[in-house]
Design brief:
alpha+beta; 4 domains; 4-stranded antiparallel sheet; about 45% helix; globular
Length: about 425
């Protein structure tokens, strides 16, 4: 280890992870894969436990990602924070070509990445081609300025645990660590999609007047799907620009029942749904008017729109708001779980109760309390004394709930993202209840 440097000014942590249990640090499968890679790299459970504690206490400063390395200052027992880093092997140019070709081959993969999702089939295809996007066991290489020679030390372990949340939010962190920034990846994908579009046009497979499937045309339009945060791709026009003003820059006629902001919101919603359809997510095509209203409200519309949707559905505002929160935490399945109790397979509930009965002593704080504190009814497990509940959904995920309000106004509300792990869901509910 390198010797400690001169004490710098302390840096406020960028993120705090107060949840208990080692699996509580990641909410996505790729974030959990990162945690698994860390925990498979060592048999030193003690240092991992201390690292989890440090991360939960907010002792990890802002994390920076660069090709091949993560860095952050991590507070410890000394008067100054230690410089901690985790190294990851960057991909070769040949591996990057293979990975980018795999992404560009299916436009829905680019759309998923831009929407904050890591396609599992992409990772599998890349791995089969010899390109490890997610870290492999023992591939994470820690480094720290502390005097602890552990591998990893507790400070580097804390950095790894804290990073899982960043990976949850933006899978492009993995691309940066493997050697190329988000902008570089998007530019390369745009070039590849445009090349594929040009090849299709030159092949002459589409005769005049015959048309093409809408999905295929959308997939090739503009090179790649464009996220609002990405560089826009302009479509060609046969008319002079000044003669064809965009409808999103022209105010609606006087007296129209909608505004320019309404049109922009609907346009964004349409683009988001189209990206999902291109990726194969067709559930929204069969949604009811109520489900579509909840989806729109959960997308972050303004207060005026929210009240208009409430009036259109005829639901009490309290009930509509609960469905919106359920959608944000659990997607369409979350709405189903919130609307009515379900009848799950008894084996699934029995397996969950068994998992909850086994205390997680990895760091001495993960005890879920045992099944005697949980009341079972239909798809719900409830700890009445704590005001927490988890519900099994049709998506085979557990949806955390807490009881909000007092007396006759008390009711159950979704409180955290759904997860396949009942232990992590119960921990998330307890964490939310503690903050409430």
């Amino acid at each position: 280890m390198t010797p400690p440097r001169k004490a710098p000014a302390r840096t406020a942590p960028a993120r705090r992870a107060p949840r208990t249990g080692s699996r509580a640090f990641a909410a996505t499968w790729w974030g959990q894969a990162w945690v698994d890679a860390l925990e498979s790299s060592t048999l030193d459970a003690g240092r991992l436990s201390r690292g989890r504690t440090y991360a939960r206490k907010g002792m990890v400063g802002p994390v920076t990602a660069a090709p091949g390395v993560l860095r952050a200052e991590v507070e410890g027992s000394a008067e100054w924070p230690y410089d901690s880093a985790v190294h990851l092997r960057v991909l070769t140019d040949a591996q990057w070509d293979t990975l980018l070709d795999a992404i560009a081959a299916q436009a829905g993969r680019t759309a998923a990445l831009l929407d904050g999702e890591m396609p599992a089939d992409l990772v599998d295809d890349a791995r089969a081609a010899g390109v490890p996007l997610l870290p492999e066991p023992a591939e994470l290489d820690p480094e720290c300025s502390c005097p602890d020679w552990g591998y990893p030390c507790k400070h580097a372990a804390a950095l790894c645990y804290a990073t899982a949340a960043y990976l949850d939010d933006d899978p492009f962190w993995l691309f940066t660590l493997r050697g190329r920034t988000k902008d570089a990846v998007l530019a390369a994908l745009r070039d590849r999609r445009q090349a594929l579009t040009g090849i299709a046009a030159e092949s002459g497979e589409t005769s005049q007047g015959q048309g093409v499937p809408a999905r295929d045309r959308f997939a090739s339009f503009g090179g790649v799907f464009v996220h609002p945060a990405a560089e826009p791709v302009e479509a060609a026009s046969d008319e002079p620009e000044e003669e064809t003003p965009s409808p999103l820059t022209t105010e609606p006629p006087a007296g129209a029942p909608f505004t320019l902001a309404d049109l922009e919101a609907l346009t964004r919603d349409t683009a988001q749904r189209a990206r999902g359809l291109a990726a194969g997510h067709t559930a929204s095509l069969t949604g009811t008017p109520l489900e579509d209203a909840v989806r729109l409200a959960a997308s972050g519309i303004g207060e005026d729109w929210f009240h208009r949707l409430v009036r259109a559905t005829g639901l009490p505002p309290h009930d509509f708001a609960r469905l919106v929160r359920a959608r944000r935490h659990g997607g369409p399945a979350g709405v189903t779980v919130a609307r009515a109790p379900l009848t799950p397979e008894p084996a699934a509930m029995a397996a969950a109760r068994t998992a909850l009965a086994a205390p997680d002593n990895a760091d001495g704080t993960g005890d879920t309390g045992g099944t005697e504190r949980l009341r079972l009814w239909r798809n719900r497990l409830t700890a009445d004394a704590e005001g927490v509940q988890i519900r099994l959904g049709p998506d085979h995920r557990w949806h955390p709930y807490i009881r909000e309000g007092r007396g006759t106004t008390a009711d159950w509300w979704p409180c955290a993202p759904a997860t396949t792990d009942p232990v992590a869901a119960l921990v998330a509910a307890r964490t939310a209840a503690a903050r409430n």
